[in-house]
Write a structure and sequence with these properties.
Shape: elongated
Helix content: over 70%
Order of helices and strands: HH
Radius of gyration: 37 Å
Number of strands: 0
Distance between the termini: 96 Å
């Protein structure tokens, strides 16, 4: 009977060792990912700084003045649009 107790104790010890190894491996993996993400954050910030320093954005072009309604619009297009609106409204009734 003592052999059976020793085997059970050995199995429990082995399982505890396997669980401890698994937890250690998990902590190592999570730590590695955490360190990588921190390095990635710093690298992204440095790249952003360098791009803004050496390649600044061009100043915005002044806005074009608004055209008065009807200027530059084809009269044929206006007639077609008016007819389309009129037909749409007639179908809605």
């Amino acid at each position: 009977m003592s052999n059976l107790a020793e085997v059970a104790t050995d199995v429990a010890t082995q399982q505890a060792d396997i669980v401890a190894d698994g937890l250690g491996l998990m902590a190592f993996g999570m730590g590695t990912v955490f360190v990588f993400l921190i390095i990635l954050i710093f690298a992204t910030n440095i790249m952003s700084f360098l791009v803004n320093k050496y390649f600044p954005e061009a100043p915005a072009a002044p806005a074009k003045p608004a055209q008065a309604p009807g200027q530059g619009v084809d009269p044929q297009l206006l007639k077609v649009l008016a007819a389309a609106v009129k037909e749409h409204r007639a179908r809605q009734k």
